[in-house]
Structure to design on (157 residues):
């Protein structure tokens, strides 16, 4: 989800709820402790120089159980960050500490913001020796002639 999308969605909701991938929710008394711009410069395993930039939201579960972040307040925090940090309309990455600090993509299901697990991947599979995916087929797709061509003692098994 891009920054412009969350700002638009925040004008349509009454509460800000973040749902974790396991279905549970970030406690409703959470704080957004950071809105920042993260740029990652790196070289992939194939030697290609890459640059990724995301807007980072850090959620923090504090012990002030009466705290509730209202949608308009989050919009204000975002707009201040855009102004002060020069943040553009990048994808959002959310940090939240469960057992360790997790980084999540963000989506919306019509009611709640969903934290989506991120995955690692090789960005240069064609250059670093990752085999291409093998063709998959069902054994029932083999025709009878092919299926019977290998018999015990024929040397093909």
């Amino acid at each position: 989800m891009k920054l412009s999308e969350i700002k638009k969605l925040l004008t349509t909701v009454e509460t800000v709820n973040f749902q974790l991938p396991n279905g549970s929710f970030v406690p409703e008394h959470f704080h957004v402790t950071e809105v920042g711009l993260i740029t990652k410069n790196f070289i992939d395993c194939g030697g290609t120089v890459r640059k990724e930039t995301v807007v980072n939201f850090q959620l923090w579960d504090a012990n002030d159980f009466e705290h509730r972040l209202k949608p308009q307040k989050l919009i204000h925090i975002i707009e201040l960050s855009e102004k002060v940090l020069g943040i553009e309309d990048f994808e959002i990455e959310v940090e939240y500490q469960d057992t360790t600090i997790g980084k999540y993509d963000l989506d919306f299901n019509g009611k709640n913001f969903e934290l989506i697990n991120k995955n690692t991947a090789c960005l240069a599979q064609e250059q670093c020796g990752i085999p291409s995916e093998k063709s998959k087929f069902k054994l029932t797709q083999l025709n009878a002639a092919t299926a019977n061509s290998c018999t015990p003692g024929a040397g093909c098994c």
Remarks:
- The mean pLDDT is 89.
- The CA atoms of residues 29 and 66 lie 6 Å apart.
- Helices lie at 3-10, 71-85, 144-148.
- Residues 3-117 form one domain.
